[in-house]
Known about the structure:
heterodimer, A: four-stranded mixed β-sheet, four-stranded antiparallel β-sheet, 10 strands, 52% helix, 16% strand, B: 15% strand, globular
Amino acid sequence: MDFRxxxxxxxxxxxxxxxxxxxxxxxxxxxxxxxIFGHDNFxxxxxxxxxxxxxxxxxxxxxxxxxxxxIGVEELSAACASTALAANASCSLCGMPILDYGTEGQKNxxxxxxxxxxxxxxxxxxxxxxxxxxxxxxxxxxxxxxGYVLNGAKMFITNGPVADVAIxxxxxDRGGGNKGISTFIVEKGTPGFAAGKKLQxxxxxxxTTSELIFENCEIPSENLLGEEGGGFAIAMESLECARIGMxxxxxxxxxxxxxxxxxxxxxxxxFGKPIGAFQEVNHKIANMRMNIExxxxxxxxxxxxxxxxxxxxxxxxxxxxxxxxxxxKCANDAVQVHGGYGYSAEYRVERLYRDVKIGEIxxxxxxVQRMIIARELLKD
Amino acid sequence: MDFALTEEQTAxxxxxxxxxxxEIYPMMEExxxxxxxxxxxxxxxxxxxxxxxxxxxxxxxxxxxxxxxxIGIEGLAHGGADAGTxxxxxxxxxxxxVPIWLLGTEGQKExxxxxxASxxxxxxxxxxxxxxxxxxxxxxxxxxxxxxxYILNGTKMFITNGPIGKVFVVIAVTDKSAGHFGISAFIVExxxxxxSVGKELNxxxxxxxTTSELIFDNCEVPxxxxxxxxxxxxITVGKTILEWERSCLLxxxxxxxxxxxxxxxxxxxxxxxxxxxxxxxxxIQHKLVDMKIAIEASRLLIYKVAWMKDNDIxxxxxxxxxxxxxxxxxxxxxEDAVQIHGGYGYMKEYPVEHGFRNAKLGTIGGGTSEIQRNIxxxxxxxxxxGGAR
Lengths: 380, 389
């Protein structure tokens, strides 16, 4: 066993934290308030190599391992959760399935530009009538003239309003169950493909979200990703990677909650002493510290299993479930520690409290994570 | 990072599990119901080599590192050594043996460690007093030097292995004016003049482990039985015991959690209600999931503490976090285990009933949860203006 980072991971964490604090964090309040996608943030992230963190160098990536990716997402989300969520959707949910299942042509066409930020990616599985129950997807891709014609609607798509390229999960066989599902790469500008209006959200408001609408949208057959009928496996695999990102995202928010609570508890006085001297306050902070340490271990462990190619489905779900639930609790306690100021938009914890909730919903709700873990646990 | 155990470590855990499942598990229920220390299990564990696991071979030990020691006790607890027996092992090997090994003179090590490693002399550790628990600085037992002896006076409370122990590491005040640095550690044998054992205490759980007061009434301790330099008692507690305790003793809890989860899965698959196994209901499944998460998270926390100790990285914070976390999820898991078993879980014949009572010690012994939170927040917050964190 070895709980140490490699020297590369350690220096990446240091320099990326520095970058996030200097370049990303100062814009976070504005990105949230104005509900704007941070194009300049994306540009900067591309410049430091984070949008292609897991992509091989031949596609313009940094070729780093999954633990490094988790380290990066934590840092980014501690600085600006909206930006972290948007980056995760583009580089993990869109980039990784192309890397893992794409043809050489597809990889050459999309990956370099995703890594450079020239293209923004998104991942479209959820529909108005189905979320985690991926087999219930209704968007249909009909084979026609050597290509496919897509009809249907996708819901709650992160980066939907700004994405240049979408991974779209659609049914190619009405009766085929899981086996009747396929994955497509759809580009912005394809006739019949449109993004719906930007959705108003509780949190991560600087990560834009919309429906995607497909109306007789014709796509060439070379935009099929993987094999026809192999889409369910691609969707599940993509979600697993993204869950590691979501778990690290939650750890980042939890850490920001703790850091703000520490600073506030050390300086705010009541009854003649800093409020951090009261156990009601400092034990909340102790709980945050315990839970963050625990969550971080689970995230690195899941990332390591995935990197090593070991079975990791349950462990990834455990990391995501645990991290999201403790992060929500940290945010709640952080607002409580701040009292009235925590309820005011001038303090960061007000935003963190709203941003954190997506962790328990996105990439599969907590309830769905428990289902996944239970299935693995009760397997004979 | 590398989360893999070596092949030897994995094999060792498995052999400890098998040993406990075959040799210890069958005899535990009887002793649990009687509420008695299981000497036959103790002897078998000693023969198997558990009692001196971390000590160097020249003192009868196996020279295992912290992680391997932890893995051994995890396997043992998983296999069937119950919480009480593991607690007795911890008081003996970790709380009594480890400080003698790390701080003792050559003479002390030669005299005591082989007897501890063989399990012949059962060991214990005496810090807590009727009026001093986690606030170790308020210890009232005194040790006054007189010629070539120290004279100890006072009473120690809740001492694991008290009624059966032969040798104890005892914390007493040698210089009242020096505060934390006026506390010293002594090796005291049952049989020294003025040493006596109070009556055995009746406990909620961990009933196969015996507990009592120890009474020192002008107890004469040879001066050579001072453990470490005078005034070193606090360091004995802090540096040598707490982190060891908070990894190795917690490992027994981890093994117990794993055993509990397996019992619950087995029961949930066999027990049928409304025409199907209760394992098919989400309300049951998701309790099992929470237990699984508790185990995975606890394992990483305590393995990390052990790894840090093996690599000489200070682990005060991580040890407190591990202790706090595993004891609290342990309590919750124990409650869920009873709930899954329904009425049967409330009956003494079912191990989850013992588990529920045993788990409560976790949030109290070795420093309460409240104390752990105090430690964590003290290491996190800087409440003095201008000081460094």
